[in-house]
Amino acid sequence: MVLVGRSGCGKTTLLHIIAGIGRPDAGHVRIDDWEITLFSEAEGDRFRAERIGYVFQTFNLLPGFSALENVLLAMRFTGKPVDRPRAKQLLEKVGLGHRMTHKPAMLSVGEQQRVAVARALANKPKILLADEPTANVDSGHQQQVLDLIRNSCSEEDVALVLVTHTPEVSAQFDRVDHLEQINQVAVSG
Fold it and tell me: pTM (2 decimals)?
């Protein structure tokens, strides 16, 4: 599913609420029959680590850690053993097998985004939230990032919610909802 809308219409805010990073002013958010708005901060962090992958627009990679370490770090938040072979496999899958030991500053913007996708998939999430995943990637790598996200979600049976304001991106998906129209229905309904 793709949510589209102009800049500032609430796309990122909605993703933060779905992920439990932000709290809604009213209403409920249910994922896997869990009411995530009732979680403490620690419970929300654990739930998110176990069930939700998040590809941030600005990558949010830790600069002092290698690509592999950034993916492994995501695995530490579940309380389960770290799966180093999976982390390596994901980086190979995103075409970075030869760059695993490189820190973010040594990677191109497109490579950083691919590390972010691998990190988001590290814990086998039920849902992947992608916030403008091509916004900071040059047009030459935009398709590569989209294909990577779509194929990874398909292969790993992960639901996808991707937000964008780019028509070239949204046109590639079957389900596209316009956030402004949803907001108008909610307000008038």
Answer: 0.88
